[in-house]
Amino acid sequence: MHNSRILHARRFFLSLGAALCLAFFSGCDEVKIIDLTPSSLAENPSQIYTLSLRATPKTSGFVAGSLVPRIIIDGKNFTMKPSAIAPDIYEFDYQLPAGRTELAYYFLVNFQVETNGIATSREAYTPVRKLNIVGRYVLSLEVNRGPVGARISVLGRGFTPQDVVYFDNTPARTVFESANALGVFVPAVEPNRNYRVTLGSSSGTSPVGTFRVDGGTVSVFPSSLSLRSGQTQTLTFTVPNPAQAGGLLLDLTTDIPESVIMPEVLIPAGQTTVTVNVQGGRPGSGSLFLKGYSDSELVVPVSVQ
Predict the structure, then answer these.
(1) What value does the mean pLDDT of the chain take?
(2) Res. 22 pLDDT band, cuts 50 70 90
(3) Given this chain, do its domains 2-134 and 219-304 carry the same CATH topology?
(4) Which CATH class is domain 137-214?
(5) How many CA atoms lie within 13 A of 295 on its CB side?
């Protein structure tokens, strides 16, 4: 007797589930619903966001004018309005409560179908989806090409001093200018090719765009240095074209950092040359290196006695 009751209950729930599935798929077969809302939207000061769908009847028995699209957000039911874009698109403007950065929603479409002169009510609905509001995003690169050392800008919103811009996998010197702009010096990478630029932070990476690193030439005088510890000598760098806004950073490296004492080499905007003082530190022999301006890196031999 006990087993018989369980069997009957199981049959009942299976029949109920089948009926619900049939009703759902029947509605979807009669009205096609396409969610036109992107999975993420940029944050705006009004905190009002538009969600939209396209609802297209697919059955010949559809009763014209009976379509009523609704959106259920966090369990609350709202009627959607026709869009001016197209007759089968509907929209709803939702004001997100303060402090919220996401919402859950699904669409429910009520309509009628006429069969043998009798109109019956039907409905179709979509799965639950989530919409994320993004307070941090990249709009664009200020320019899309330039030489190694050029200073460019990345524009967007939500930047922090911890952000770093990468050219492929090479980190660039990144300067925090504001929450809406970062200054970036093109790193010493191989010239005459395109690089994928990304923005990296503790929350992950975001695509920025593609940047073409152009080749260039740099001359240096003198071509080598011979110093005593504590002695200072000048080194002059020259490029063929005036540096653009932000200057041109010549990112030199050395294999004898304790022997060479020198400042950062930055050719000012509008200038073609810069002269810096190089001071001898501990005794040693090595070189200064500059990449990105010719087929082989620029090398300045240095000897400190």
Answers:
(1) 86
(2) very low
(3) yes
(4) mainly beta
(5) 0
CB-facing half-sphere around the CA of 83: CA atoms within 13 A = 16
Q: 245 φ, ψ to 5°? A: -55, 135
State residue 18's pLDDT score: 40
3-state secondary structure of 18: helix
Distance CA 89, CA 270 (A): 54
> Can you tell me the distance from the alpha carbon of 2 to that of 184, in angstroms, rounded to the nearest whole number?
75
Angle 255-166-204 (CA atoms, 0-180°, nearest 5)?
125
pLDDT category of residue 2 using cuts at 50, 70 and 90: very low
Q: Is 226 helix (H, G, I), strand (E, B) or coil?
A: strand
CATH class of 2-134: mainly beta
Contact 150, 251 (CB under 8 A): no
Domains of the chain by residue range: 2-134, 137-214, 219-304
CA distances from 175 to 116, 117, 178, 225, 294 (A): 72, 72, 9, 32, 26
Q: How far apart are CA 195 and CA 208, in angstroms?
A: 11
Average confidence (pLDDT) over 149-173: 91
pTM of the shown model: 0.58
- What pLDDT does 10 receive? 44
* Distance of alpha carbon 163 from alpha carbon 158, whole angstroms: 10
Helix, coil or strand: residue 16: helix
Three-state DSSP class for residue 193: strand
Q: Which fold has domain 219-304?
A: Immunoglobulin-like (2.60.40)
